[in-house]
Amino acid sequence: MAIYRHVHVEFWKDPKVLEELTPEDKLFFIYLLTNPNTTQIGVYKITKKQIAFELGFSIESVNVLMDRFINNYGLIKYNNDTREICLKNWGKYNLNKLGKPMLDCVRSELKNVDDKSLLEFIKPSISKDEIVSLFDEAIYLDKVNDKDNNKYNDRYTLSTQKKKEKENKNKKENKNIGEKSNGSDIKTTREFKHTVLYEKEDEYIYKKPSEEQLRYARNL
C-alpha cells in the first residue's frame, strides 16, 4: 500500500518560508515533511547520516541545518539519544481527519515513541480533540511509568545500600576480632578451649601437696 505525505500549498506562502528560509533550508524542510521515515503523528526516528546521504549533504551541513531549525526557527526538535525528530506544525496539516483507521494508527504509533516529551511540541498544532486526548494519554502513561520505575530504582538502591552497609559492618567486626586475638586479649573459640585445658593441667601439676601427703612421703 502506498504511503503519501501531504504538503499544503500554503507552505510556499508562509512568511517564515518566504523571508527566512534559504533554498537549502526549503529543501531540508520539504525532506523532513516527506521522507520515507515519516509517520502519521510527526515523530519518527532518523539519523543524521541518513539525512546527509539522501540529500547529498555532508554531516557538517546537516548539523548546521539541524541547529538552525531547532534554535533559530523553532520548527523541529531532535533527540540525539533516541534519534527521534518531531515537526512543530505537523498536526495542522496531517492530523486534521478522524475515523477509526486514523485513530488506531495514531494510537499505535504513539506507543513506538521513546521520547514522549516530543509529543508536547506537536500537540498545540492539533485541532481534533480526540487526537489530542490520545497524545495526552500517551504522555500521562509515560510519566506514570517513569514514576513507578523511579520508585523501583529507589527501593533497589536503598536495599543494595543497606546490604552493603551490613556487609561492611560484618567485615569491620571480624577485622577487630582478628586484631584483638593477635594481641592475646581475646581468643577464638578453639584457642580459648586449649587455654582452659592448659590452665587446668598447670593447676594440677603445680598444686601444693596436703599435710597428709607430706607425712606419707616422710615415712617412705
Explain this structure.
With 220 residues, the protein is mostly helical. It is built from ten helices and three strands. It has a three-stranded antiparallel β-sheet. It starts with 14 loop residues before the first helix and ends with a helix.
Oligomer: single chain
Mean pLDDT: 83
How would you sum up the global shape? elongated
Strand order of the largest sheet: 1-3-2
The beta-strand count equals 3
Give the % helix.
Answer: 55-70%
Report the C-alpha radius of gyration, rounded.
Answer: 40 Å
The largest sheet is: 3 strands, antiparallel
Q: Please, how many helices? A: 10
Order of secondary-structure elements = HHEHHEEHHHHHH
Layout of strands and helices, then pairs:
Layout: H1 15-19, H2 23-34, E1 43-45, H3 48-55, H4 59-72, E2 76-79, E3 84-87, H5 90-94, H6 100-111, H7 117-122, H8 129-182, H9 189-205, H10 211-218
Antiparallel strand pairs: 1-3, 2-3
Descriptors for this entry?
64% helix; 220 residues; 5% strand; mainly alpha; 3-stranded antiparallel beta sheet
Task: Describe the structure in brief.
This protein is mainly alpha-helical and 220 residues long. It is built from ten helices and three strands.
